Amino acid sequence: MSRTTAAAEGDVVVLLIGMRINRFWAVHHWLPALLTMPRMLSELKKRPGRGLLGHVLLTASPRTYYVVQYWESKEKLYAYASASDMFHHRAWATINRKEKAGKLRQHVGIWHETYVVPEGAYESIYGDMPAFGLAAAHGVLPLEKRGRRAGDRFAFRSAKAGQGAQPPSA
Question: So what's the pLDDT on residue 168?
Answer without folding.
Answer: 54
